[in-house]
Amino acid sequence: MERRKFINGLMVIGGIGTLGAAIYPVVEYLVPPDSGEPTVTSLKVGKLSEFEMNSSKIIKFGRIPVMLIRDESGELHALAATCTHLDCIVQYRQDAKQIVCACHNGVFDLKGRNLSGPPPKPLEEFAVIIKDDEIIITSQKS
Ligand code: FES
Q: Whole domain around residue 113: which residue ranges?
């Protein structure tokens, strides 16, 4: 009788272990980890003296593509590079001095205001700080 109880106990423990080994990886796969990507609040993007007038570049601000434009007067504009219509990446047109979206002909001015086409709202604006010839973009509105 004692031997039978002992063997039954071993089988129950083995069954629980097997069940746990099968369920644990499934739960680990389904539950996302606690730590996400670090939040970016400011970013150095290069030297002002090396950034040509009437030109632009797109940089990654964390996960957000941001378009940095230096207009003909030397003023800097940092705007989200994602169109507010259907999330296409916008481009700076040097000849027209405008930001255009090639997907559906959306047009924005250098302040990010939507001028024509389907985009329903302006591009998000980022603040630009110049510190010792270094261009810094921050998430605070300018
Ligand atoms: S996605 Fe830009 S105009 Fe449609």
A: 42-138
